Amino acid sequence: MQPFSRVPITAGGDNGAVTRIRGSYRTGRARAEEILAAAQELFIAEGYGATSLRGIAAAVGISHPALLRYFPTKGDVLTALVRKLDVQASAWLDGSGDSDSTVPGPGDIARRSQATPGWVELFTALLGEATSPEHPGHELMLGRRHAGLALVQRLLAPFSPDDDSARVEALRLAALWDGLQILSLYFPGEIDLPGHLDAYAEEIEAHGVPRSRLPTARSADEGPAEGGAARSRRRVVIEAAARRYALSGYYGASMRSVAEEAGVSLAALIHIAPTKEALLHLVVSELFAENLEDSLDWMMSWMSSIGDRPRWLNAAQVVLLCEATVPSHPAHDALRARLAAGREVARASLEGSGVADDVARPVADGLVALALGSIVGWMYDGWEADPAVVLGDTVTRVLRQP
Asked: Binning pLDDT at 50, 70 and 90, where does residue 6 land?
């Protein structure tokens, strides 16, 4: 049997990295590549939402209309760039698979991704923003996710008691990986993503996949939040802003669009939050106000109830968490502080149970990562990725303590 730690777990994209090239093919191809290279640097430095087509054009040294000849929308730039990186990844995997001993495992793939400038930053930001079906990258990211899950499920099958268990474990690995990438961007140098994935593969090889059952189909509530007409105008504005962030992120949500969503005048909105950034901080303080210092059990219980909350609320949290990984984002420091608190809660709780510090720290990060990734999975796959099932008995079964 081929060891799970030495199998590829990612699916490559197609070779349609550049689809809109006019004029001379060679000249047009070179120009399109320049545009993608400039866009990649800007997406890394500023985030996808904060980057404009005019900014990309200026970085390349061409006019905005000239750029539009190659890529009519920012979404076209994004999807072309993702496909280009997918093609490069597929070529690397194909070249690494000459024998069983050289086929890359999860940790190897993570190392290669981290060594590719912008890979983790770009895909993490896109991971959050593309949860909205209206986002230009949604179908692309959803397709990549489903192809990857199907491949992982097949690879896990020899270690699993049945198909349901293999499927749940594939969802669990995806959540762990997504969450670790988010943490690695907020805490550079502190999260050993490849090491976590190496340990995961060793766990599967040593103990197999635990028996699990896919959850019963259900969907997240899309209705209004609790309180109805009794809600204060301030609360209505906060919810409206969160809904707009869920659809288009902080940068794509204007003050006017939030006012329209809330059904209030722009003047009334400005009275509650005088600036766009002030509104963001108001929303962040409300969306991430839960007291994570209580206990690890409380935190995991809260994460498991994701499916019981309105989709827009979860979506706003995911989008903000992913786009604010860029240090220049106005919510970066606040969200980093919330994540740091969550990591400390998990670590202290494990140490309080007698787990040694050098073990508690990585296990705690794995727990927080799995919880974060579970929210992302719920946003893409709904009931199938129910966090209550994906999280499971994470301490003893997913991140088994030595």
From this structure: low
pLDDT value at 194 more than 80: yes
Burial status of residue 26 (CB atoms within 10 A of its CB: 0-12, 13-18, 19 or more): exposed
Q: What are the structure tokens assigned to 169, written together?
A: 């474990």
Tell me the pLDDT of the chain averaged across its residues.
81
Helix (H) or strand (E) holding 316: helix 311-323
8 A C-beta contact, residue 362 and residue 198? no
Distance CA 71, CA 216 (A): 43
CB-CB contact of 61 with 34 (8 Å): no
The CA distances from residue 146 to 11, 67, 82, 140, 376, in Å, are 9, 32, 16, 10, 13
10, 86 Cβ separation under 8 angstroms: no
Question: Is residue 207 helix, strand or coil?
Answer: helix
**How many C-beta neighbours within 10 Å does residue 376 have?**
25
Cβ atoms of residues 3 and 101 within 8 Å: no
* Structural contact between residues 92 and 112, judged by C-beta atoms closer than 8 angstroms: yes
Please provide the DSSP assignment of 145-163 as one string.
HHHHHHHHHHHHGGG-SSH
Q: pLDDT value at position 238?
A: 94
Q: How many residues does the chain have?
A: 402
DSSP string of 247-276? HHHHHH--HHHHHHHHT--HHHHHHH-SSH
pTM to 2 decimal places? 0.83
The predicted structure's pLDDT at residue 106: 83
Give the CB-side neighbour count of residue 58, counting CA atoms within 13 A.
6
Q: In sequence order, what are the residues at sequence separation of 6 or more whose Cβ sits closer than 8 angstroms to the Cβ of residue 318? A: 128, 131, 375, 376, 379
Q: Is the pLDDT score of 83 beyond 70?
A: yes
Tell me: pLDDT of 20 over 50. Answer: no
Query: 255-262 and 233-252 helices cross at what angle (nearest 10)?
Result: 140
pLDDT one-digit tens code per residue, 332-361: 999 999 899 888 888 888 888 788 888 888
Q: Which two tokens stand for residue 116?
A: 């590719």
